[in-house]
Fold this protein.
Amino acid sequence: KQWYQRRVRGSVGAETVMTGPELKKYIADIRQKSTVYKARRAEMADLRAEVGVLSRTVDILQNQYTDVKHLIAQTEKDKGIAGFTDAQDELEKISSQKGTVDQAKGQILEDMSDMSDKLNEMIAEKKASLAPVIKELRPLRAKCSELEQLHAQKKSEYDSLSARLGSNLHSLEQEVKELRETAQTEESRYHFLMHSKQLLELEQQKVEEELAVYKNPDPAARKQSLREQYNRKILEQDNLGKALRAKQKTVREQHVPNVAQMAMWRDLTTLLTCKTNTLSRLQQKEVETGGENILIL
C-alpha cells in the first residue's frame, strides 16, 4: 500500500488514499503480476542453464573453427589467394550484424511504444479514480494540519505545566515529609507531657489528701498520714540502728573473751580426744592380756 501511494504521489503530484475496493483490486493485480514474475523467473533460470550449455558448445565450435580457419589459410597461401576467406567472412558478418541490429531496433521501438501506451492508460485510469478521493482529501489535509498545530501547542503547554508541577510536587513532598516528622515529634512530646501531667496530678492529689489528713483534728486520723507513717518508720529505723550499734558494741567487747574461750574449748576437745584414744588402746590391751577394765579420766 505504501509503495502504491508513493507511485501515485509521483504520478499525480499529491498525496492519495485508496478506498477498500481499489486496494483489493490493486492487491489482486499485484498477486497476478507476482505469479507472472515467478513464472518468468523460472524461465530465465532455464534459459541461463541452456545458455551455459550453448556457451560450452560455442567454445568447442570456436576451437574447431580456429583449426579449420588455420587449415584454410594455409591452403589459400599454398594456392596464392591468402586472405580471401577472411574478407568473405567479414563481409557476411557485417551484413548479418546490420540485419540483426535493424530487427532489434524495430522490436525495441515497438515494445517502448506499447509500454508507453499502457502507462498512459494506467495513469489516466488512476487519475480518474483518485480525483474524488483527492478532492475529499484536501479539506482533511487542511484540518489535519490545524490539528497538528493544535496538538503541538497543547503538547508544549502540557510539557511546561508538567515540568512546573513536577518541581512543585518535589518541593511539596519534601515539605510534607518535614511536616510529618515534625508532627511525629510533637505527638511524642504531647504524649510525654500528658503522661507527666497525669503523674503530677496524681502527686498533687496525694499532696492534697496528705494535707487534708494532716489538718484533721482527729489524732487517730492524723496517724494515717504519710508524714506520721514516715516518722514512725524513721523512729523504728533509728531504734533498730541503736539496737544494732549496742549489739555491735557487745560483740566487740566480748570478742576477745569469746576467742579465748573458743581456744580453751578446742584444747579441751583435743585433750578429751587424746584420753579417749588412750582408753581405747588400754582396753584393747587388757582384752589381749586378760586384765581388769580401767577407766582413766
Summary: The two ends are 145 Å apart (CA to CA). Residues 279 and 295 are 7 Å apart (CA to CA).
